[in-house]
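Below is how a single chain appears once it has passed through the pipeline. First comes the sequence as given, then the structure the pipeline wrote out for it. We keep one example in the README because the format questions we get most often are answered faster by looking than by reading.
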Amino acid sequence: MTIKMKLRKQQLTCGRSKFLLTGSIISVCIAFSPYIFYLYEIFPSGPVWENSFFTYESKYYQDVMTAAWTYLGKLTPLLLLLIWFFTCKHWWYHVILVPIIMYGYQLVSAFYEDMSPVGGTIDTNQLIYLAPFFIIVLSIVYLIRIKVFDRIYGIDLSEIERENISPFSPFSDKEYKEIKDFREGTGNNGDIQEEYYVKL
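Resulting structure:
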């Protein structure tokens, strides 16, 4: 029995230390996000950046520093949104996918336009391309909301419409039934009326 308890204690300690390490890495990433954005200042000013690994030529911006500023301006919020998405414990966390997809699309679009010799305008017709993703994500979130709502309140949505019950009401179904019984069966009895108003 003591060996099992020791093993369980070791597993709990190991789990806590992993949780602490993950939380520390996430907090450091969030704290250093302004520094990630300002990394563009280390890039050279000019249309071509040559180093020992590769050569990068900015065709759209005609300036490597401006291109890096654009990429990091989209990459930094994308990183923060990804952290939020993977650590969020709310039922609506799927909605965070919408700005993630938007920033991802903008980043790919900016990089593609800078690399292509033709060039173009950044974020052109963005909403047309992203609309299907928005619709899918919002549909998923709405379905999750219905399931969560049904699990919390334990009633059908049709019952709410039929009974005219507010989902944000402080009363439970049992209390509504008691109030309804008071309304229907009390008549003009003063004590019961007073108890009814106390219930409200």
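Residues 40-154 form one domain.

See the next section for the split statistics.
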